Amino acid sequence: MLESLGLDAAQEELYERVLTNPGLQVDPDTPERAVLDQLVSRRLVRRSDDRYTAVPPELALQRLLDDRRLELDRAAARVRELERLHRATPDPEQQVPVQFVPGDEAPHFQRAIHATTRNQLRALETPPYGKPFELGDTEPEVGAIHRGVRHRIVYSREAVDVQGLDVLRLTLTIGEEARVAGDVPLRLSIFDDAVATMPLRTGRPVTEGLLVIRPSALLDALIALFEQVWSTALPLSPDLTDGLDPDDDRTLIALLAAGMGDQAIARQLGISLRTVGRRVQRVQTTLNAATRFQAGVAIGVQQAQDHPSKRV
Description:
Strand order of the largest sheet: 4-10-9-8-5-6-7-11
Largest sheet: 8 strands, mixed
Number of strands: 11
Shape: elongated
């Protein structure tokens, strides 16, 4: 009955015998003695001199049951991971242009694709997201960038505000090329020109379902869409990678150049709206700009002059 826990019939029978006969003594030369020693090594039976006492089943057998459950859980997790890798790997003989991935599998599926990306990731980032952003959420991006995968990301202003500069700086400081647009049409990731992923429904998180697009006219159109948005977006200033200093006008200028509104700037810098307004006015005066828009244009031009080698 307990073979699934690793006990054969002889071990199970002898364990039951010791359980019902505490202090059992067995002659050293009998085959039972060897089986008892096996039960002792598995912590099912205790030995004191030549007497044997069974460890209570709720302790001994429950431990074996928990260990076997853990092994099965690990095996099941490995099966799921292999299945995700299988789905993420194109099959030339059975490839379809569009694939649906259920929402509960979507984050793991995207991680699997990201792990196999070799040359470039292009992405449009905009909320909503399935959960609040944390520093650990950038682990796949950091690992890929260290492998030499080029990352070009266009963030909507809302995405910058939601993710926060502390999260964005982690990838910006190691080579991510980031730009900001007032509005981004959809959330999109394109891996190596080979596969793209996007939410099942525009304006909804991927945890409600994910579409996977393989090489096709649709994938070509999504690549062209990204390049169009990228070409018109503003570079996210390298000044943000120096650290978030609410008293440094370079940080405020970088946020202003990204098109961030006063409320978003106030949240990111932890200062009041009145302080933001006063400092923006000071920046406009310094740049001889009549409006925030003119200041943003002037800053963008200055950034282009300061960083002419930035790839586009």
